[in-house]
Specification:
Layout: H1 9-21, H2 35-56, E1 68-70, E2 80-82, H3 98-111, H4 115-123, E3 141-142, E4 148-152, H5 157-162, H6 168-179, E5 189-192, H7 206-223, E6 227-231, H8 233-240, H9 246-249, E7 254-258, E8 261-268, H10 271-276, H11 281-295
Parallel strand pairs: 4-5, 4-6, 6-8
Antiparallel strand pairs: 1-2, 3-5, 7-8
Helix pairs in contact: 3-4, 3-7
Length: 297
């Protein structure tokens, strides 16, 4: 175990960053604690307190006791009933209902007239719980003028740390995929369906996807790409619908209506699929060649 007493502030910061990137959200205590013994002691204490309470409790009455009356004042006033005040409890914080969060996201997205305005609107949006655990908002990056946009599912640890889409090892893999067909990340627009990293790189829930949908659809509408490349299972299902896997959805061109214009769209495997299973590279290469042929006309 690493002792924090022997680490410099810089080393501590690096260690915390490493744990955050690995998805660690809880820290262990310095000394071991026998939780099983604590639990048994707690059960014994509760059992003993219940026995004492039942022994000292008076027998239950069949009728409720009438309210007590205060004696009349010396001036001859009427007797008044004395009732115990209603107990008060601290009410929990009210969360934004899902439907309201979606409406607020739609309003914020539709109000933006440029990608810069949309980024400001998303930075001020508080209706998605993912922003509470993420380090950064990972917004679209690149050049939309060439008419090519690439969308992934969500930021990963490297993206969340750098505040940029497709960073780190997965970004390197995407760079090689693009270079193979004569493209670069600087010449396309890169983005994600969900702009905040889910804890532990888990798949976004349907609720989170619904709340973030207005933002990614508005990005596509404002960028007006001619060709859209979708990466991975989640992204393809998000735009195409259904529950088919990426191996059934990949390699087939579809027309999507986004922002009043038609976008020619192709789905392929995510760089993570290629890193975890290199055999997938041959399928991705077929899709990238088809993408190149279409954008070259």
């Amino acid at each position: 175990m690493i002792s924090a007493d022997n680490l410099s502030p810089g080393q501590l910061a690096a260690l915390l960053a490493f744990h955050a990137d690995a998805g660690v959200e809880w820290l262990m205590e310095e000394e071991p604690v026998d939780r099983l013994a604590e639990f048994e002691a707690m059960k014994a204490a509760r059992s003993e307190s219940r026995q004492q309470a039942s022994a000292s409790q008076p027998p239950a009455r069949s009728e409720a006791a009438p309210p007590t009356r205060q004696p009349a004042s010396a001036a001859g006033g009427h007797a008044r009933e004395s009732r115990a005040p209603a107990p008060t409890a601290n009410a929990p914080a009210v969360a934004i209902p899902d439907a309201q969060a979606v409406k607020e996201a739609q309003f914020a997205a539709e109000s933006a007239r440029s990608l810069a305005e949309l980024r400001l609107a998303m930075e001020g949006f508080v209706g998605c719980n993912l922003r509470n655990s993420a380090r950064n908002l990972v917004f679209a990056e690149g050049d939309p003028s060439n008419g090519v946009m690439i969308v992934g599912p969500m930021p990963y640890a490297d993206d969340d740390r750098d505040g940029q889409p497709f960073s780190g090892r997965l970004g390197d893999m995407l760079n090689r995929m693009l270079a193979g067909i004569g493209l670069s990340r600087e010449g396309v627009l890169l983005s994600n369906v969900v702009p905040w990293r889910p804890p532990g790189n888990r798949v976004p829930t349907a609720r989170e996807a619904d709340i973030c949908r207005p933002f990614i659809e508005r990005q596509v509408a404002l960028a007006e790409p001619k060709h859209l490349l979708l990466l991975g299972n989640f992204t393809a299902r998000f735009f195409f619908g259904g529950s088919d896997t990426i191996h059934h959805l990949r390699g087939e061109w579809r027309d999507l209506q986004m922002g009043g214009h038609t976008v020619q769209t192709l789905a392929t495997l995510h760089p993570q699929d290629l890193v975890s299973a290199p055999i997938n590279k041959r399928f991705a290469w077929q899709d990238m060649l088809a993408f190149k042929a279409r954008i070259n006309g």
